[in-house]
Amino acid sequence: MIIGAELDRSQLRELRKALAELELPKKKRQRLIWRLAKYGVIPAAKRNVRNQQSPDGTPWQGRKTRRRGKMLRNLPNLLHIREMPEIEAVRLYLQGGGYRNGQNPVPAGVIGYAQQEGMKTTVRARSFSRPAPAGKMATLKQAKRLRKLGYRVKKGKRWRKPPFKEITETLGFAQAGLLIRKLSGRPVKTAWSIDLPARPFVGMSAEDFNKALARQLQAIGYGWDVNA
Hints:
Blueprint (H helix, E strand, L loop, with lengths): L8 H14 L3 H26 L27 E6 L4 E6 L5 E2 L2 E2 L2 H10 L1 E6 L15 H9 L4 E3 L2 E3 L3 H7 L2 H12 L6 E6 L9 H14 L9
Antiparallel strand pairs: 1-2, 3-4, 5-8, 6-7
Helix pairs in contact: 1-7, 2-7, 4-5, 4-6
């Protein structure tokens, strides 16, 4: 039903029970399922991202980097609904976002599935490498790094540390990068592993599902005496 995050068995059982007991016409059954997705599952996904937690209330594992800010902020906004009346269902899918892996575009559905289920993969440096623009000079960040690593230039018979301005005006970007790698003495990584923890965001708790079902039954004119 939803990028690997279907309603759980108890929720499906409750939905089927409601459909059977009320003897809804086919069109209203389809309408109810659509409204549950539109006004139940999608708002729940946005709420899960806002609270940075799984549908069951478990907090997501944080980032391993120093990057701050909320995770998956844009993903719920990319959720769309596809009607599937032939099997009395709907499908939620992700579209848009402009995600990329190096030079290659990545579908939003792949990003969503990886976050929802978790992912282990190997990334190769060549997929991210791109040649420096012709004529690009060393950056101030590179200059600071070079001085910290002890970079020196010869002037006459003496060696000295060049100032930042001199480095940024005389060294090319690629040349500065090569010098930094050599002076740091660290082997250049050609590949590394990424272990992305699962951060489920699509789905509802049992309480949220029951409330959403009651509300949408009321909205289509059934279950008017049920309090959400």
